[in-house]
Each structure stands twice: as structure tokens, then as C-alpha cells.
């Protein structure tokens, strides 16, 4: 291990990369020349527009829209509004773009992907369907891609499942969910965007239930089976849930997200006996003022006294709570709350009104959206899928030919210790990819220091670590720190008495590129300690045509618990889980230097008054999942 002492630096933020004077002068000159070049290019562009071109020699101009998908009635699928409209971008090389492709996360062979759809387990195979553009690496022409796996990790691509070939889904086969019927049949209810951009719900089902791969699907002659009800906008009616059976009512029920005229997020409930005829139930399942359009609703039961998943149709009871989740179109985050479902009244009430859907807990505090769960009948668990889009530019996505990945599927359990949140954890099958491992014990991370861990390769890792703050430091810290926030307090460079400290992943040796996964402990006015878990992308890349943020939130830490974190590093995606999955963060990372053999792994302590010890660290090299097409016979 190599220890670097940054405390003696004159900088108050030692984790900020410091350029020398010559580099700074070169950068100023480079910036000046870039500005001149950009001005010249702009003048040339204006000239080309004003001069009538030869009709036989037109030069195509690629224009990227300020948003993508909004006018069609879905959440924005472009980063253009966040990146601006600069004429130039980072000069990505083919080698760097190839490095960005993940080794063990699910993604198509090429082109655009977004929401997971209808995940299920059938005849020995896990199935994932997903929003897919077969023609390009940007959103549009949405069809359903399809893949299967024996273990949720090693995926095999199959032919497209549903394509936009009817008037009721001509502008997109959008998000849907699967429901198993008692006789073994499967029904898939999905949103279609019609020729007139009206959002309707449609029914599809497998053509051959004897086929374990479910290759062919039929669309019902009754489509569309649901139209937007009165008072609901034609572009505000999408993403039906898995249905649950209400035995007392002898009927199936499913939920659809929307918003009302006052911009309140709402969840509509429908009753059906055959998935063709539906009745809209009075009122709404739930509503939260000011939260806007609720996309990709999910609604399912969790056990409060066991570590098993529950089928979606398990009714409310003494040891059963229900989770309501919504993807908020307004801020592109997935919020959830735990509460009580009143079957008779058709309403759900959160346990904590101040932590309601859209204003409280999130599944993930990073780049994570449009998630969907399913009940895994093979292992009796609830499994969560999530989509993480790119945070680079559409220009770059077109260069590399693909966009978006799925996070590693996660198990979902009620946290019996806190009683107030869920626990999310990577499915156990991902551990089958573990190769060689290295263990580190009792590493002292002094104030202001960075410690290099001697790891041969650092771009595909599974890391588990336990941290402890020296007891005397905790006792000596008496001043309250009320203003800290992961996103607004400078990230890993913002120093406090008890943090931040943790890991720097995908870092080069000079720390010019680094992604911090860290804890930050503060003392409240009442004297109690509060712990933040953060992920800092601000110095993750030297490129400037990507969105870089600091993500994070409070993570509950109970008396006597040690701080723990698990990190999955897989090229351009980093998933982190604090305290057994109470708080989770996903980032997309695009380093320009810290790739392949250059990438390093560090521990760091940027606090000003706390000695931190990494009590235990175990790091596994991870194999690739070798995701590929299924070898179908010709």
C-alpha cells in the first residue's frame, strides 16, 4: 500500500486535482484557441446556411434536439438540456469508447435501450423485455427487445418481441407488465402510443405456452383495451403494473400512473375479470400534491417479519406492508414509500406522510429510473430491475453505437431493523462472476491522506468494506454541522470534521480523474450523529461533454453498527450499496485516462478531525458475463 499525505498541502480541498502553472497557462491558451476556432466554425456554418448550396452536393448537418420524447408524451430521453449546445465535444477515441461498454451488466448488442418491461420467470428461464430502438443509439421507434437467462446474469439475446405495427401502438410499444393467471397463462398489458399520440393500454400474450423462450407473442383483437378516462390527458396515461388478484372481490386489479389538472401525481386503479373489459374504480389508490406525472408505477407487498419475497397478490395482513413506487417525470428519480393497503376502500396510506411517494425515499440516489419488480417464483424473492441511461452526449452515443445499461438485478426486502425502509442487494448470482480476491485488514487512513490499494486490475470489481471512526474523534466532535448535503456541499472535496472518507474508484495515479464513494458523518443539534452516503462524479473525467454530479442522501446507521459499503465497478457504471442496501447510488463514469491498466483504487480521508480505519476490505476481480445472441436454429 502506498500512502499519500495531502494534509500538508496548502489547499483546503486536497482531493481537488491541482494543475501546475505551466499546465494552467497551456490550458488558458488552449481555451482561447478553442474559442477562436468555435467562432470560426460558427461563422462558417452561418455562411453555409446563407449561401444557396448546389442541389446535387448538399452536406448533411446533424442537429440534436433540445429534448427527445417529451413531445411524444414520455419523459425526456436526452441530456441535451443539461449539456447545452456546444459545437464541439471531447475527442473520444475508439479505444476509450470500447472500454465504456460493460462486462457483466445487461445491455443490447447495439443501439438505444430504456425501461425494463415484463420481467418474469418461466419454465427455467428468466426473461427481460425492454424498450429498444432497433435503428439508432438515440430514443425513438420504440419496440420491445427480449433476452433470457438461467441466472439473471448470463443473458442471451432473442429476436424482437413486440413492434409498433398497429394504429394503437404505431408511435411506440411502451412500458408494460406481465401477470400470471392461475391456469398458467401469461398476459402482458402494455402502453401503446397511437397514430394520434394518444396513450392507450393494450393486451398481448404468448403464442405458444409450450415454448420456454416465449419467442412469439400475439396482440389481442380487442386492443386497445383501455383509453384515457375523462379528466386525464391523452399523454398522461401510461405504464400499467402487474395485476394482483383480490379474492374478496373475485377480480384482478392493476394500477396506472398519471397526474391531475393540478399537477398532482396520481395512481388509478382498474378492475378486470378477463384483462379485456375494465372498470375504473372510484377515487385513486393514492395521490401526492405537486409531484407531477407518475410513470412506471409499481405496487407490491413485502413481509415485515421474514426475509422472503411475496407474490404480488398476497393480501394485506398483520405482517404485510405494501410498497408504492413511482418514477417522477419532473425530476427523473424513482421514489417509493411503505404503507398500508386497504383493499375494501381501494386506497393506500403511507406509514410516514412526510416521506410520501415523490418527497421521501428513493430506490437509488444516482442515475436510475423506470424500475420494475417481479416475484421470482423459482427462489421466492422479489427482484428489482432498473434502467441507467447515459450521461454523455447523443453525439458520443452515436459514435459508440449504443446507449444505456440495466443495473444488476436486486433483491428487495423490508428492513426489519429500521422498520422504515427497504433493503436492496445485488442478486446472489452475480457472485458467480467472482474470480481472484484480495483481503486488507485494519488500514489506518489518517486525516488528509490517500492510500493506494495494490490491485492489479480495477475496472471490473466487487468490493465490500467496513469502516470505523476512532472513538475519541467522535467524542471530541461537539459542534453541530447542519448545512451538509451530498449534492451541494462540494462532494468529496468539501471537508468536515468527520468526513468525507471512503474509496476513490476509477482514478488515475495523479488523482486527476477520480470517482469518490464515501461517508460523511455530522452531529445534529440534539447531539446525535447522522451519516450521509455520497457518490462524487465531479472529477470523474477530464471530458466536459458529460453530466457530472454529486449524488447521495442520509443512510440510517443504528447504534452499534459499523459503516459498511459494497461497490460494483464495471467500466462505465458504478453501483454502491451502504449499510446492507439501505441507501443505493448508481453512477455512469467516462474517464479519459483512468481506464484499463491506468485505473487505480484508493482509500481516502478528507476529514479534518477524524482518524478512520478500514477494518476489513475484500475485493474480487469480476469475470465478464459474455452476453451474446441465443443460438437459435436456422
TrEMBL record:
It comes from Fritillaria thunbergii. Residues 105-426 form the Glycosyl hydrolase family 32 N-terminal domain. GO terms for cellular component: vacuole. Keywords: Glycoprotein, Glycosidase, Hydrolase, Membrane, Transmembrane, Transmembrane helix, Vacuole. Residues 57-97 form the Beta-fructofuranosidase N-terminal domain. One of its GO terms (biological process) is carbohydrate metabolic process. This is Sai protein. It holds the Pfam family Glyco_hydro_32N. The chain crosses the membrane at residues 28-51. InterPro entries: Beta-fructofuranosidase_N, ConA-like_dom_sf, Fructan_Metab_Enzymes, Glyco_hydro_32, Glyco_hydro_32_C, Glyco_hydro_32_N, Glyco_hydro_beta-prop_sf.
Amino acid at each position: 500500500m502506498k500512502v499519500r499525505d495531502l494534509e500538508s498541502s496548502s489547499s483546503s480541498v486536497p482531493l481537488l486535482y491541482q494543475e501546475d502553472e505551466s499546465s494552467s497557462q497551456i490550458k488558458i491558451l488552449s481555451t482561447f484557441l478553442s474559442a477562436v476556432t468555435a467562432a470560426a466554425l460558427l461563422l462558417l456554418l452561418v455562411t453555409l446556411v446563407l449561401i444557396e448550396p448546389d442541389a446535387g452536393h448538399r452536406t448533411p448537418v446533424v442537429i440534436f434536439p433540445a429534448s427527445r420524447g417529451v413531445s411524444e408524451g414520455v419523459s425526456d430521453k436526452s441530456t441535451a438540456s443539461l449539456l447545452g449546445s456546444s459545437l464541439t465535444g471531447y475527442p473520444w477515441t475508439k479505444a476509450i469508447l470500447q472500454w465504456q461498454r460493460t462486462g457483466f451488466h445487461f445491455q443490447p448488442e447495439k443501439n438505444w435501450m430504456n425501461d425494463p418491461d415484463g420481467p418474469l420467470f418461466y419454465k427455467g428461464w428468466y426473461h427481460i423485455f425492454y424498450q429498444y430502438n432497433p435503428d439508432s443509439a438515440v430514443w425513438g421507434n420504440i419496440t420491445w427487445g427480449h433476452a433470457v437467462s438461467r441466472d439473471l446474469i448470463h443473458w442471451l439475446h432473442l429476436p424482437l418481441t413486440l413492434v409498433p405495427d398497429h394504429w394503437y401502438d404505431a408511435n411506440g410499444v411502451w412500458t408494460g407488465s406481465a401477470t400470471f393467471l392461475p391456469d398458467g397463462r401469461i398476459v402482458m398489458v402494455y402502453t401503446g402510443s397511437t397514430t394520434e399520440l394518444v396513450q392507450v393500454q393494450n393486451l398481448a400474450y404468448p403464442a405458444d405456452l409450450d415454448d420456454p423462450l416465449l419467442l412469439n407473442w400475439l396482440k389481442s383483437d380487442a386492443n386497445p383495451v383501455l383509453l384515457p378516462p375523462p379528466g386525464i390527458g391523452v399523454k398522461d396515461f401510461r405504464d400499467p403494473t402487474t395485476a394482483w388478484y383480490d379474492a374478496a372481490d373475485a377480480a384482478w386489479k392493476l394500477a396506472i400512473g398519471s397526474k391531475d389538472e393540478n399537477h398532482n401525481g396520481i395512481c388509478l386503479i382498474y378492475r378486470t375479470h378477463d384483462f379485456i373489459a375494465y372498470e375504473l374504480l372510484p377515487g385513486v389508490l393514492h395521490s401526492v400534491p405537486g409531484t407531477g406525472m407518475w410513470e412506471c408505477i409499481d405496487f407490491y407487498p413485502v413481509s415485515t417479519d421474514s426475509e422472503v419475497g411475496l407474490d404480488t397478490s398476497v393480501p394485506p395482513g398483520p405482517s404485510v406492508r405494501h410498497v408504492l413506487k413511482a418514477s417522477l417525470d419532473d425530476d427523473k428519480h424513482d421514489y417509493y414509500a411503505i404503507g398500508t393497503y386497504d383493499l375494501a376502500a381501494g386506497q393506500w396510506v403511507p406509514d410516514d406522510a412526510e416521506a410520501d411517494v415523490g418527497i421521501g425515499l428513493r430506490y437509488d440516489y444516482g442515475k436510475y429510473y423506470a424500475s420494475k419488480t417481479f416475484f421470482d417464483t423459482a427462489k421466492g424473492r422479489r427482484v428489482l430491475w432498473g434502467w441507467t441511461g447515459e450521461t454523455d452526449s447523443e453525439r458520443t452515443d452515436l459514435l459508440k453505437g449504443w446507449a444505456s445499461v440495466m443495473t444488476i438485478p436486486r433483491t428487495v426486502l423490508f428492513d426489519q431493523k429500521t422498520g422504515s425502509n427497504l433493503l436492496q442487494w445485488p442478486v446472489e448470482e452475480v457472485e458467480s462472476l467472482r474470480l481472484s480476491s484480495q483481503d486488507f485488514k485494519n488500514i489506518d487512513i489518517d486525516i488528509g491522506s490517500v492510500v493506494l490499494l495494490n490491485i492489479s486490475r480495477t475496472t471490473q470489481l466487487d468490493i465490500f468494506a467496513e469502516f470505523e471512526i476512532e472513538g475519541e474523534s467522535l467524542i471530541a466532535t461537539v459542534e453541530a454541522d447542519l448545512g451538509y448535503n451530498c449534492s451541494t456541499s462540494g462532494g468529496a472535496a468539501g471537508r468536515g470534521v468527520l468526513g468525507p472518507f471512503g474509496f476513490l474508484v476509477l482514478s488515475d495515479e495523479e488523482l486527476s480523474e477520480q470517482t469518490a464513494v464515501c461517508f460523511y458523518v455530522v452531529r445534529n443539534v440534539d447531539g446525535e450523529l447522522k451519516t450521509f452516503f455520497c457518490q462524487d462524479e465531479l472529477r470523474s473525467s477530464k471530458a466536459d461533454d458529460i453530466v457530472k454530479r454529486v449524488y447521495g442522501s442520509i443512510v440510517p446507521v443504528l447504534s452499534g453498527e459499523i459503516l459498511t459499503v459494497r461497490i460494483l465497478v464495471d467500466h462505465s457504471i458504478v453501483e454502491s450499496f451502504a449499510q446492507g442496501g439501505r441507501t443505493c447510488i448508481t453512477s455512469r463514469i467516462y474517464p479519459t485516462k483512468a481506464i484499463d491498466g491506468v485505473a487505480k483504487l484508493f482509500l481516502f480521508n478528507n476529514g479534518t478531525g477524524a482518524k478512520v480505519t478500514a477494518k476489513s476490505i475484500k475485493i474480487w476481480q469480476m469475470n465478464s458475463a459474455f452476453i451474446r445472441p441465443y443460438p437459435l436454429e436456422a
